[in-house]
Amino acid sequence: MTDRLPGFSTLAVHAGAQPDPTTGARVTPIYQTTSFVFNDADHAASLFGLQAFGNIYTRIGNPTTAVLEERIAALEGGTAALAVASGHAAQVVVLQQLLMPGDEFIAARKLYGGSINQFTHAFKSFGWNVAWADPDDIGSFERAVTPRTKAIFIESIANPAGSITDIEPIAEVARKAGVPLIVDNTLATPYLIRPIDHGADIVVHSLTKFLGGHGNSLGGIIVDGGTFDWSKDNKYPMLSEPRPEYHGIRIQETFGNFAFAIACRVLGLRDLGPALSPFNAFMILTGIETLPLRMQKHCENAKAVAEFLAGHSAVASVNYAGLASDKYNKLARKYAPKGAGAVFTFSLRGGYDAGVNLVSNLKLFSHLANVGDTRSLVIHPASTTHSQLDDAAKVRSGAAPDVVRLSIGIEDKEDLIADLEQALSA
Ligand SMILES: *Cc1c(COP(=O)(O)O)cnc(C)c1O
């Protein structure tokens, strides 16, 4: 043993995992069981009363999923994490701990299209109101703060345009307002950006994308930064008030710097129910072992493809923060020095029709609604993921009619460029 702190790649392979104590299995087994036998009646009572940690029922926790949670908490530099069934489930569970009906949260306009829909429509039925701010204008966050604001939500690398968000000044706005900053770190992964290091209090992910990385399993996760004081001003009663369902304990007082992750598990996941399947936890854990290698290749390929497109006569513009000429290159060098990710957009001189044609003519790229696969993916947001937005909202969220989004995979970059070349000249 040494005192060395393990590096990122070592944590990606080992954090949270040990050989199975019963069988010696080196890879974390899939504990495909709904429930767990108690030692005796006292043990059962202490688990239910939150006096002891342990397994009860897979909706609340599972040993395979627990390894995934510990691993991602380590990679993000958080105190604890809670895995759930999808990225969208993570967003619901987080905000349910923070907002009461009539409360508000501020969200950056440049977001995954599904998040824009969730915030605008589904959350309205819970009585949660979203105020939109422009991630390129820090003042727009300040101006949106009201006495009912309970959180700020941004993406580190924003979907679909791959723009880099200036996290630190937005974290400062959140601190002044006395609310947590939630960062969706899906497109960056902790390999490229660790938002907690820049002032975020909570990190959420769609594990479906680069973390799982192989396009085979949905999942989501919530990481507690352990940085926020939930007891101040009784602003967050779920965390600061006695909980009748747990003998009157106060979550913040009892669990300290991992109180938020506990609240998400024992109040959110337990009652709302979006549990991750242990099988998906296993698939995603396996994916994470190669996260550093994959992200290096994703970023290297994305840069090469972006450079090729920037020099092509059919292309009007390329938005890739890894290009020296890009508007976000300075922020990319500050927040994501290892690479600007692998999801970006470009626009075609031929407009909407050219976008639709390109998508139809590509052969190696798959036309589908996902990102963060080993395979290269393409989509025309205006006719698909962002089609429900009106034209002005499409433009504001980076999905104008002439825009095509790519998610660059880990194939040989020469093959990706050849495919784009044939499709652009078809
Ligand atoms: C996909 C995605 C989500 C939603 O995640 P699901 O796992 O599909 O529910 C949220 N945020 C971002 C940035 C995404 O790419």
TrEMBL record:
The keyword rRNA-binding does not apply. Residues 1-25 are annotated as: Disordered. Gene3D superfamilies: Aspartate Aminotransferase, domain 1, Type I PLP-dependent aspartate aminotransferase-like (Major domain). One of its GO terms (biological process) is transsulfuration. PROSITE patterns: CYS_MET_METAB_PP. The modification N6-(pyridoxal phosphate)lysine is found at residue 209. One of its GO terms (molecular function) is cysteine synthase activity. Its EC number is 2.5.1.49. Keywords: Pyridoxal phosphate, Transferase. Its cofactor is pyridoxal 5'-phosphate. GO terms for cellular component: cytoplasm. Belongs to the trans-sulfuration enzymes family. This is O-acetylhomoserine aminocarboxypropyltransferase. It comes from Bradyrhizobium valentinum.
